[in-house]
Write a structure and sequence with these properties.
It is built from 1 helix and 18 strands. With 205 residues, the protein is mainly β. A 4-stranded mixed sheet has the order 14-15-13-16, with no helix packed on it.
């Protein structure tokens, strides 16, 4: 008498890190972008937390969103031109803050500091100390309209390095009163400077 024994084998997969095995599956699957698995033998993958992202499939971890960007679970996105974001782990486009009025990032994206918001062409940046913008016509915050006789077409101009057109000068690097050397000036202030030699920046020396 013979006894026949039939053995029915059931094969289950054991998922490696970065993959998962659904119940009853024989083959492991890669975690999709935006998800991860750090441990073996998992039945599903875990979504990246807010402020983290993973753009590749089969990942074992997510990456932190860096300053100058905001992130969905599967993409890190640069802050657009004329915005800035100094914080990490940002997960909304509104985390990128608009530059102040009259300023721009001059075509740069992914900016991390408001210091990269320069005055736009046609304006100069007034110094923080020793300059009262409320007394100067054409100033908005620290960006002021460039006076006649200057060339602010490049943008990102500071008062101390204000480019002057040929034939114009000013008495000091913090002076917004731009003159031509042929003008008639108040004797106490201008007579001595009328024919003074000019420096490279057009400042009377």
């Amino acid at each position: 008498m013979f006894l026949w024994v039939y053995v029915i084998s059931t094969v289950f997969c054991i998922a490696a890190p970065g993959t998962y095995c659904p119940v009853g599956s024989e083959n492991e699957n890669n975690c999709s972008a935006g998800t991860f698995n750090s441990l073996p033998g998992q039945l599903r993958c875990h979504a990246c937390a807010k402020g983290y992202y993973q753009q590749f499939a089969g990942a074992t971890a997510c990456s932190a969103c860096v300053p100058g960007h905001w992130c969905s679970t599967d993409t890190q996105i640069r802050c657009s031109e004329n915005t800035w974001n100094p914080y990490s782990l940002s997960n909304q486009v509104t985390d990128c803050t608009r530059c102040p009025e009259r300023t721009s990032t001059l075509g740069q994206s992914g900016v991390t500091s408001i210091e990269a918001c320069f005055c736009e062409p046609g304006f100069f940046l007034a110094p923080v100390q020793g300059f009262d913008t409320s007394t100067i016509k054409g100033c908005k915050d620290r960006c002021c309209v460039c006076p006649i006789g200057t060339d602010c077409s490049a943008g990102a101009i500071h008062l101390a390095r204000l480019p002057l057109k040929q034939g114009y000068f000013r008495l000091s690097a913090n002076d917004v009163d731009v003159r031509t050397k042929h003008q008639v000036f108040e004797p106490t202030r201008w007579r001595a400077q009328k024919y003074a030699p000019l420096s490279r920046d057009g400042i009377a020396s």
